[in-house]
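DM from R.C. (forwarded with permission)

"hey, sorry to bug you on a friday — could you get me a structure for this? deadline for the figure draft is monday and I only need the backbone to look sensible"
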Amino acid sequence: MSEETANVQEKKAEAKSEEKDSADLIIDVDEMVKAGVYFGHRKSKRHPKMKPYIFTVKNNVDIIDLQQSAEKLKGALEFLQKIIRDRGKILFVGTRLQAKNSLKDLAEATEMPYVNERWLGGFLTNFQTMLKRIEYFNELQKKKESGEFEKYSKKERIKLDKELKNLEEKFGGVKEIKKLPEALFILDLKKDALAGKEAKRLGIPVVAVCDTNTDPDLSDWPIPANDDAISSIKYILEKVKEAILKAKEK
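My reply, with the result:
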């Protein structure tokens, strides 16, 4: 078999795999209704660029067009699957109190880096400096685990433990990151707009949940959806997890 023939067959196999993954992505609008994905914010808070995604207004509250949400979600999931098949990394970002535990669970289940505390300005745009801080955090953690802290005085150990806790909050979810991610998934683009802006500046694709009060232009793959209700958040994160795990099986 020639190298050219082998390459063609490999590409065909990849294409079939992608088609199967896409076919496996079932987005049920009825499930989205049950999860409350369609509830937006009050009309007065609407971002003008979200108008195309509004189905109607009920009791002065924007109702999101779930047909569009389903299409956008499926497209975003297919994109994330491609990143995974190409052995890329997705950085998950979600710092809102009601969502950060669910986001952490998703990231850990898919073995991806995450930020669920405060987004550190410059994390992407000043990445080399951040990497040095992450390396320092990892070294400090190893010293504690090896018992090296015991050689210090009680006062010094308290100081080191406090520093380690602070670094854990900042870098615990990204301690294994070695390079810039191939994509960002942002659970609340309005709250974590800085992450979106940094990614945009560096040309890193952004997949983001966009509620009706959010500027969708900060995202390459906006998903119009309720980013406040736990049920809506969990529905979307579960779909993301399913898609990534399926892509990882290939």
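R.C.: lifesaver. The first strand starts at residue 39 and ends at 42.
me: no worries. The radius of gyration is 21 Å.
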